[in-house]
Amino acid sequence: MFFTSVQFIGFFVLVWICWKMLPAWRIAVISLASLIFLASFGWMSLFLAILMCTLNFFGAQHIGVRWLYVCIQGVNIAAIPLAGYLAHRSASFETTGIAPLAMAAGISFYNLQHIAYLADVRKTRIHPETAYLSYLMASVYFPKVLSGPITYWQEMKPQILALSGALPATGTGLKRVLLGVFKKLVLADGLAPSVSSVFDHNDQLPGVTVFAGAILFTLQLYFDFSGYCDMAIGFSRLMGIDLPENFNFPLRSLSMAEFWRRWHMTLMRFLNDYVFMPVAFYFRRAGKHGATVGIVAVFLLSAWWHGLGVTFLLWGISHCIYMLAGHYLKWKSVGALPRVMGMLLVFLLFSFSNVFFRSPDTRSCMYKLGLLFNGPFLPSEWDVEFLAPLAVGGHQIDLFNFYIVLFLSVAYLTFERRIFSLAEREGLVLRYVYVILLLVVMFGVFGSTRQFIYMQF
Amino acid sequence: MRNSSTLEEVQGILRRVIGNSGLTVTMFTTAPEVNGWDSLSHMHFIAETEDHFGVRFSFDEARSLKNIGDLVNLIDRKRTC
User: Fold this and answer.
1) Any idea what DSSP says for residue A361?
2) pLDDT beneath 70, residues of chain A
3) Which residues of chain B have pLDDT under 70?
4) Are A118 and A73 within 8 A, CB to CB?
5) Nearest to A35 by CA among A163, A146, A150, A140
6) How far B63 CA sits from the closest chain A CA (Å)?
7) Which phi and psi angles does A315 have, rounded to 5°?
8) DSSP code of A114?
């Protein structure tokens, strides 16, 4: 049940009516709805979510027992790659019907909240929670359970306690949902065929086509993931709960350090609080090198969190190199260059690292790198070797669709701050709603069940 | 009185760590307000502060500092203990 499916809309309307009619039972209503939502991804997803929640909830009650703490944190951490492995295996069993049993939807996201919670209770920064249902709701809350934003218990608790009297932010909530639908159905899904054409086939392409594919994937990933987060934040606001932002216009960053403060912010917040800061503190006498150890730890763990393959490791290493270059060369921002050049440089560096991120396996990744650096970079025939693969077919209508999605993507990026501030303005702003709806109806990709990219993590 | 001399010394350390000799801070200055004082340089700054004043901070103490004033007060508290 994806956010953009008709089933989810029906499900959400039903939940919202119950939420509205039963204010005193809102925690129970949302918890039950979240469990039903998880069950729609298979019983294994439901079972694992309840198991991890229960384990951590009761573990926190006995936080003084050191071996118990170590064991539960071990399970929390080990479950993340295990879930990725199961999801990967399930993908290969798509036709056998085993897939739903092998999925562990959202585990790598909600387990980070469990890890933070248990660590904070252990360090006596917070008290262990005594209401199981509240903790359950915070960990499996359906707008964010699949792919974040990753929350901390401390920021969910006060909102859950005040839930019975919470008012829905209907205007901004609906507008954020619409913005997310536009980003996903029009932009991300519109770009997906071009990206797939470059990365999912091992055709002999010139380097410039592969690089264009990497750039288009960067845009697709941004629109897909930030679109998902817009929807998560919007749906949540309709139920009176504020989720943290996950993106802050990252493609406008002037350095990689700034980029990582603005991209997937809740994952980086977790990695900063629970990995970088402790490591950098431990090695603080090493001066600048102390931060180096922290940077390497953060990006290798980030790579491991995304997946166990060599491609993710290479992706993590590329970002270690970018960050360390900035750290040692004092490249805080590209001050000497015009702003637009700085942004472009960060965008191109990130796009290059996405060749590792998007390639389905190591062999394919190496092949793409070979095309980028060893083969001819420019095509002999632009129509055949550049436009046709990117426009998937190269017929008149394919080219038209490709240009339209490209134009809308660039237009969106140019005006994204203004569009975002309209979405965040109080009230419904009808002209905004009409324009977005019109664009979705005219250019949206309907009928395909393309899942969100970050659901695989 | 002690606060103000500690503040001046802390300012000197921060100037050295982030390489900005003209930097002026107050008790209310926070890291985001100072160009170059980011999470990468923060722990280095903490270590230099510890060495300068001959005190030791725990990780949670270093983590919970919200502004320069918190750091100055923490140093003064540690030195009077």
Assistant:
1) S
2) 84-102, 330-337, 393-394, 447-451, 455-457
3) 1-3, 81
4) yes
5) A140
6) 8
7) -60, -45
8) H
Q: Which amino acid is at A69?
A: Y
> A277 and B60: CB-CB below 8 Å?
no
Question: Using CB atoms within 10 A of its CB, is residue A238 exposed (0-12), middle (13-18) or buried (19+)?
Answer: buried
Report the C-alpha gap between A128 and A119 in whole angstroms: 11
C-beta of residue A118 within 8 angstroms of C-beta of residue A12 = no
| B53 in Cβ contact with B81 (< 8 Å) | no
Q: Looking at the complex, does the CB of residue A177 fall below 8 Å from at least one CB of chain B?
A: no
* Chain B contacts to A (CB-CB under 8 A): 19, 35-36, 38-44, 46-47, 59-60, 62-63
Q: Does A295 contact chain B (CB < 8 Å)? A: yes
Tokens of A350: 């990130």
One-letter amino acid of B41: S
For A252, the token pair is 């406008």
| In A359-429, alpha helices (H) | 362-373, 382, 388-390, 396-424
**How far is the alpha carbon of A84 from chain B, nearest alpha carbon, in Å?**
30
Q: Which one of A123, A257, A280 has the shortest CB-CB distance to B60? A: A123
